Amino acid sequence: MPGTSTLAATPYALRLNADWTHLSRRPATAALLKSLAAGHPGFPQGGADAVVCALRADDDALMRLLVAAAQEPGESGQIAARIVIEALRPLAVRLARQHAEAGGFQDSFAHVTAVLFQVLRTVPLTRRGAMLANIRMEMVGLLFGERRKHNPAARRAINTARPLGDPARLATTRASGAISLELADSAEDLALGALASADAFSRARAAGLAAGEESGERGELLDLLLWALDQRVITTGQARALSEHGQGGAETAASRAAVNRARERGIHRLREAASRYLAETAQ
């Protein structure tokens, strides 16, 4: 087939992009979406891309509908599974980076995508809980096995929030003619960056930390503090003192001295644990 060798030589993300472009234009895809829409009022209109955007907006009912369709035999089931895979690509990338070993990211990404397809075709439809959470747990179990209870990457994968991204920005990046092979995963990087930042602010607020103004740098600080709390590197008081630094607020001289002491102790402990944090988050 003309172009096959060239396609095989490109990064896996670009191959998925090409496959998605082809699938989203197929008559069989349009027929499946029309069939699903006929029995479900409010089904997203606008083709496969619109369905992907709706799935990324955490529509559990839609996710269940697509996963049920993915478990049907024949071509329609495969198309439905591929639509869900497209919606969950940021999650697949995150798991691939956490699972990658000697084979490198591209091999791991292909393996994780295959596991995701398997999960979509077999995950019990009657299981309680959000469908996305069930999918994620099934994938973590298959990818990490018994290591999932102790492996930091597996724990992060289990606790990761839904794989939201900015669909418009994602599509723009993918469609850009300037994208290079080295930046083939940049679209997923954007989604992962947005996910990590939003997740850090949400978890920080739940932990009683001062979230502050949302920014990439602030998100990285909060992620570090949350990791340190989870690993018992710092105390809750030290985490709060560090998160509140530079955020304003009235303090008496006595309370300011106590906060400064807690902050200094927290910084000292974070420095001692820095190598552990970098080793775990680099996975």
Automatic annotation (TrEMBL):
Source organism of this protein record: Actinospica acidithermotolerans
Name this polypeptide is given: Uncharacterized protein
